[in-house]
Specification:
Blueprint: H1 2-8, H2 14-26, E1 31-38, E2 51-59, E3 69-72, H3 77-84, E4 88-90, H4 100-103, E5 104-105, E6 108-119, E7 125-133, H5 141-151, H6 154-177, H7 188-192
Antiparallel strand pairs: 1-2, 1-7, 2-3, 4-6, 5-6, 6-7
Length: 193
């Protein structure tokens, strides 16, 4: 019910931020990242060739987005969870191989992780990851099980947000072409500012 309420109160991609913020609150986490695997057309989940992209993020006490792109899937706990299609807990992501690029980005000093992989509706792979900053309590098996259950809803929510955003964009372009520009409604471009 809480996730639905978040969506009803939001527009476009801000709805995704609301969902991530909701998850952070429910798990007493410090941040959440929605990851998507990027791979070349025709590639399968190849550990050497697949890359992770941030599809969305929200972190408590931070004004900047968490931006990590082109991260090799086999170089971080979330990528390995996606490749194995298995939820995972990590007590200290800094102890993992190649952790530097993953955990030290701007204000983010990440330590604790719980992650759950899933498939988007278009068949691409992704994961939802929750983080706690250095010194926070570790996530436990109960957190992993609950996140795994909630992760099954992410693909539908994400697709609904994309569909609504695409529809709004098409309507704005159509109105512009017809000489009747629509006023800004606080969509993706406004959020990026």
């Amino acid at each position: 019910v809480g996730l639905i309420r978040c969506l009803e109160q939001s527009r476009d991609w801000k709805a995704l931020t609301s969902v991530l913020r909701y998850l952070v609150g429910q798990f007493h986490a410090d941040g959440a990242v929605l990851w998507e695997v990027f791979h070349q057309e025709g590639d399968s989940l190849d550990p050497q060739r697949n890359r992770l992209l941030v599809a969305g993020s929200w972190f408590r006490n931070s004004s900047q987005p968490y931006v990590v792109h082109d991260l090799k899937a086999n170089e971080c706990p979330t990528g390995r969870a996606i490749l194995a299609n298995t939820p995972d807990l990590c007590g200290d992501v800094q102890d993992t191989a190649h952790a530097g690029r993953y955990v030290q980005v701007g204000d983010f000093d990440l330590q604790r992780l719980v992650t759950s992989p899933f498939s988007f509706l278009d068949g691409s792979r992704g994961a939802i990851s929750l983080y706690r900053f250095r010194g926070g309590p570790p996530f436990d098996k109960r957190d992993k099980n609950l996140l795994t259950e909630l992760a099954t809803t992410i693909p539908v929510i994400y697709q609904a947000i994309r569909d609504r955003s695409n529809h709004d964009l098409i309507m704005r372009v159509k109105a512009e072409l017809e000489g009747n520009p629509l006023p800004a409604v606080g969509g993706l471009m406004d959020q990026a500012r």
